Amino acid sequence: MYTQAMDLGPQENAQAPRHAVEQELLRRFDARIDDGGFIEAKDWMPDHYRKTLVRQISQHAHSEIVGMLPEGNWITRAPTLKRKAILLAKVQDEGGHGLYLYAAAETLGTSRDELLDALHQGRAKYSSIFNYPTLTWADVGVIGWLVDGAAIMNQVPLCRCSYAPYARAMIRICREESFHQRQGYDALLTMMRDGTQRQRDMVQDAVNRWWWPSLMMFGPPDSSSTHSAQSMRWGIKRISNDDLRQKFVDATVEQAKLLGVSLPDPQLAWNEQRNHYDFGPIDWDEFHRVIAGDGPCNRERLAARVKAWEDGAWVRAAAQAHAAKAAARSTPLAA
Ligand SMILES: [Fe+2]
Ligand SMILES: [Fe+2]
Known about the structure:
- Strands 1-2 form a two-stranded antiparallel ribbon.
- The protein is an all-alpha fold.
- The chain contains 13 helices and two strands; from the N terminus they run H-H-H-H-H-H-H-H-H-H-E-E-H-H-H.
- Bound molecules: fe (ii) ion (2 copies).
């Protein structure tokens, strides 16, 4: 997924360039951004651009690996072998997305250990959507349809992000996210078309619970998004939170009709003047509460990540010991 939290975090002031050389480097950097060019890891970049990217890419990476947890919860209980194989592949993809993204963040000079430490200490954010529970099998389908669907809307513009290592990672990730969205929609279609009334009710219940948190994935409204303007200027962000959210609503309403479910918003209606769907107000208090750590599953998710890190300590130690032995063997003895 899952880039929503990118707009959150302490406001930092762009640092004024200190002397003429730096000013010239900044001028060239700005000119390249204005030309639609890309910045590579070895290129000069302003500190604030680097920090913004480290924060955004690491939040994105954390979201991918925390995002493995709600669905991983259903691997042993998938209804058929086919669904189990698909879900296993999907959850594994999310782990892979996390790894590409940690690698992209490391190119900016922050180590993976530092990034993970910030997550484990509760200093780093991840997408609030993964702090909601997966109560039934229908939740797995709805996550694919709505959560991965929202992720695609957020992430496709990132394939043109000005920081090239991030943009390259996103191209591959987006291809996999579109498979995730389709598998979720397909699982729901099967339940709605071939299932029992109880199964159809289960799908509707899951849609009712996930709809509003999915809309929150696009981040705060443009009017109160602290980092958006600077990120747009730098070509990190290409489309605003509100525009992406609108795009998602417009596409999803039609998919809901085909599926035969209703969306839990009495104010949802086509607006001919705007050529878009209108929708009701989002509960931003809930969003801020969940982001601040007080959602239904925040503590459980963080505890699961910390436990996985601690349980894996012996694997990291063994890999390092093996690498040290291999290096010692390949070092020619001094004459
Ligand atoms: Fe992903
Ligand atoms: Fe995904």
